[in-house]
Amino acid sequence: MGNPFTSISCAIRHDNARVVSWTMLQGANYPEDFRIQIENSRAGAPWEVLATDLQNTCVFVDSRRRNYNKRLNECYRLRLTIPCTREEYLSDIVDAGNCKAYPYSPDAENVLKQVNESMKISGTPGVLLKKKLWGLRCPLCVDFDGQQTVNEHCPRCLGTGIDGGYFPGISLTVIKDSITTSESPSQVGYLQGESVKGRCIAYPWISVGDVWCEDLSNNRYVINNATPTASYKQTHLVYTLTMHRVELSDVLHSPHADDKVVTKDLWTGGTPALLPDDTAPGHRRNAWDDLLEQP
Fold first, then answer.
1. Domain residue spans of the chain
2. Using one digit for the tens of pLDDT, what is the confidence trace for 243-257?
3. pLDDT tens across 235-292, in order?
């Protein structure tokens, strides 16, 4: 297997915590015993392990207390190890500096406040399920030769081919700007479709194929497009989403998907490692709260 890490990025939260996110190679044959850990180094100092067991997440929040500065004097990297074959892979090194900081300037805050005020009036609360694109293959439905799922209704991977299907749910409020309904003939009558166009705070990991679940109606929508409509420097602030509702018979309404929706906001990002000064990160809140404090 080649190096599985395809990208790594870092943003700085308003309280100076670092939010590290990454993507990994799709279609790779990950063994069952692979391990991922995140490492940190300051100004050329030795690398130290911050957390391990990061298989079931794509974000880590370094909330250790530090002097309030955003200089380019801190770096992060990821390390993947496979104990059975003694293979080891390192990601690129990412700087935690002001050029990649999450913007909490007055201009950016004004834009976010306007969206937040609109959310209080017309926003619809819901849960975002981030689709898994890498990880262990589903043991129930993945074909051995083709390494592809042969059951789009698999109850274990929810049709993704990756064990678990989706990452844990995270609260996400969406403003529905327009709703379009349609009907199409089928063998059992007419199927009703619904498309939604809306806005939300730019959640950095929203992508095509993710699922948004509406709290009130329990309707579930697959995200077809996420387009940034407001940005500050290099960071997007607001997304326009286009989504379509799935039928109640879809696997996204199965008990396995229900569990991920009900147990939302439990994103912990792995097992904290014991640091030399005994200031392990400990439990981290969900990634939504880590990126934006609602006023």
1. 5-102+270-291, 106-131+166-262
2. 999 988 889 999 888
3. 777 899 999 999 888 899 998 888 888 877 765 455 566 444 433 343 334 433 444 4
* 20 SS3 class: strand
Residue environment code for 247-277, b if the CB has 16+ CB neighbours within 10 A, otherwise e: eeebbbbbebbeebbeebeebbbbebbeeee
Indicate if the pLDDT at residue 23 is higher than 60.
yes
| Closest to 40 in 3D by CA, of 32, 29, 49 | 49
Mean pLDDT (whole number) for 150-177: 87
CATH architecture of 5-102+270-291: Sandwich (2.60)
Spatial contact of 260 and 211, defined as CB atoms under 8 Å apart:
no
Cβ within 8 Å of residue 164, ≥6 positions away:
56, 132, 135, 156, 157
Q: Select the CATH number that applies to the domain covering 106-131+166-262 from these four: 1.10.1200, 2.60.40, 2.40.10, 1.10.8.
A: 2.40.10
How many residues in total does the chain contain?
Answer: 295
| Mean model confidence pLDDT for the chain | 78
Residue owning tokens 């609360």:
125
Give the CA count within 13 Å in the CB-facing half-sphere of 183.
Answer: 4
